[in-house]
Amino acid sequence: MLNELIAIINERAVDASFSLVAVETMMTAKDNLWPNGKAPGQQGCWESGFASLLLVDITDADASEASRLAKLAESYLDARILQREKTGAVIDGYLVLAVSSAPEFKPFIAEVERNTLFMRKHAVIKGDEGWERYERITPLGLGRSAIVSAAPVFAPDDMGAVDLLDALASMSSKELADLHGKEWNLNE
């Protein structure tokens, strides 16, 4: 079922110009905090020119363990963002936590999503009918847009608009602006 969530996030990430990256190859032994190169429970990391998004699975953790794992994942993503910002870019961070739908997780979800220190945090829930709340992941929230098969045809129904288009076709925009400027009294 986790593979389904990874596929959903990957599809939405690609639509939003993110790419799946192997962060473990970048966070190596040179990084004191992350000698293993991977956060516990890490399922994927996607990056774009403006952001990094990390998916971490904590569905098997109990509610008390979830906070510790979330802080660990937050520290990991923060280290990756700082690493990327060494180039001078400003990078947003989005931590996505896959959590259980057990009732004891409700306070944890509310607390973790309200905490925007360092980055935005989102919880996706493994419900009875699949994954829920993935559409709330801020940079991926919009669904795939429909592709317009043909450009819409502009057909003005106002004669003033038709005259303006004809004038634009026969003279430069500066000439047209000068012509219209003479018609207006700007000192009114």
3D structure, described in words:
The protein is 37% helix and 19% strand. With 188 residues, the protein is an alpha/beta fold. It folds into two domains: 2-140; 153-188. It has a six-stranded mixed sheet with strand order 1-2-3-4-5-6, with helices on both faces. It is elongated and about 75 Å long.
SSE layout:
Blueprint: H1 2-15, E1 19-21, E2 42-47, E3 51-57, H2 63-85, E4 92-100, H3 106-114, E5 120-127, E6 130-132, H4 159-170, H5 173-183
- Compute the number of helices: 5
Secondary-structure-derived class: alpha/beta
* Low-pLDDT residue intervals, each spanning 5 or more residues: none
- Could you tell me the radius of gyration in angstroms? 25 Å
Query: Could you state the order of secondary-structure elements as H and E?
Result: HEEEHEHEEHH
Strand order of the largest sheet: 1-2-3-4-5-6
Average pLDDT figure: 84
Residues in helix, %: 25-40%
Number of domains: 2
Q: Which percent range describes the beta-strand content?
A: 15-25%
Ends: how far apart? 69 Å
Shape: elongated
- Count of strand segments: 6
Biggest beta sheet summary: 6 strands, mixed
